Amino acid sequence: MVIIATENTSLYAFRKYGDMVLRTAYSCCGCYAEAEDIAQEVFLYLHTKPVDFDDDEHMKAWLLRVAVNKCKNYKRSFRTSHTQPLEEENAGTYSMDTTDIEVRELISSIPQKYSEVIYLYYYEGYQIKEIGKILGKNPSTVNSLLQRGREKLKLELTEEKAPKKQGIMRRT
To answer: Which CATH architecture has domain 1-82?
Structure first.
């Protein structure tokens, strides 16, 4: 079934995949307000430049790809590289428990090439081949990124849990 681009395509996509795009953007950029802006840009882009899709999965993959690219653009922007973010309070409509927040913060603390693969695999449930298509990467590359990302997360978790030793130097 081919989905022909119409004025309602962006509205349909927003209703069906709006939360997923918002979660993806939040996972990539770590700021709820910026994630909302990025999600809005994704659907505005679809509305202004309609695309014909093969099916709903094709639409979903396209939306994720555009969201990830918009997040990359956001992270490369002058504003993010030259400013410090204010502490953000979680928006009331997007509530998560503290464990989930901590895990997402850890995921966002590792390099983006690992965090986007981990997010798509664990949070969105994509298989490695599907992630490869979405990101335009070879499946073996995606698998390597996933493994390295897991190792980086494990390292972050062990460093976080290990008590920090305060060395006292003695003169003898």
So the answer is: Orthogonal Bundle (1.10)
